[in-house]
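Quick start: read one record
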Amino acid sequence: EDVYRRVLSGELTMIVSRPLLAELGRVLVDKFDWEPAYVEEVVAQMIRIGELVKPAEVVEDIINDPADNRVLEAAAEDTADVIVSGDRHLLALGSWRDMPIVAPAGFIGEA
């Protein structure tokens, strides 16, 4: 909750992109069985509080799960300070282009 407050206050910036949000929506519906209407609300909220970027670069660094590259593309567009993800393929990288990749629990503990 503190991280959410820090995003709302502008202290932290959450970077989002349309391809990344589309993938999030797909996962929430297909994998977690969320109602599509609720997913639409969540995505709209993320657009409202995040910084929407339009990635110009196509990244193909993660072969085993190409959808994970959408995270890297969004991070590259805004040169993020840190990538926060629970995804095992992203976490296995450890860092990408000098941006550390950390699990949400680790980020919350440091934020």
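The chain has a mean pLDDT of 91.
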